[in-house]
Automatic annotation (TrEMBL):
Organism: Paenibacillus lautus
Domain called PhnB-like: residue spans: 3-127
Residues annotated as transmembrane: none
Source lineage: Bacteria, Bacillati, Bacillota, Bacilli, Bacillales
Pfam hit, one: 3-dmu-9_3-mt
Protein name as annotated: VOC family protein
Chain segments annotated as coiled-coil in the UniProt record: none
CDD domains reported for this sequence: PhnB_like
Length: 133
């Protein structure tokens, strides 16, 4: 086995999501994008395959060329450990914009501050500020 990589399937907004995420999380970048061309199964210019990195963790994503009724589920989430209250507030505010809270940012006893949200793309995020931060 060479690696294990989280894979996100979007329906037409993969590039927008990647750009949104790398604008919020420091030390992040789009690694590669391969786009559908004319006469290929996906919409021309949409993401056939892409890779991006958030704080060193590589993700892959696509714009599905097959329409489906399912979307992301909160049972799989991206977990961020933040270093300061300012950082968790900033990241939470940027990710919840257009999305919704499953657990609003608060002290739930197991950490100084925690929030669980679904962003505007439907991707689930858990943000944690450990008590020792």
């Amino acid at each position: 086995m060479k690696s294990v990589t989280p894979f996100l399937m979007f329906q037409g907004n993969a590039e927008e999501a990647m750009n949104h995420y790398i604008s919020i999380i420091e030390d992040s970048e789009i690694i590669s994008i391969t786009r559908y061309g004319l006469d290929q199964p996906g919409a021309e210019g949409s993401v056939m395959h892409a890779a991006f990195s958030l704080k060193g963790q590589t993700f892959m994503c696509i714009d599905s060329n097959v329409k489906h009724e399912f979307t992301f589920t909160p049972s799989f989430s991206i977990y961020l450990t933040c270093e300061s209250e300012a950082e968790i507030e900033k990241v939470y505010g940027a990710l919840i914009d257009g999305g919704g809270a499953m657990m609003p940012l608060d002290n739930y006893g197991f950490s100084q501050k925690f929030g669980w949200i679904a962003d505007k793309f439907g991707v689930s995020w858990q943000l944690n500020l450990p008590s020792e931060a």
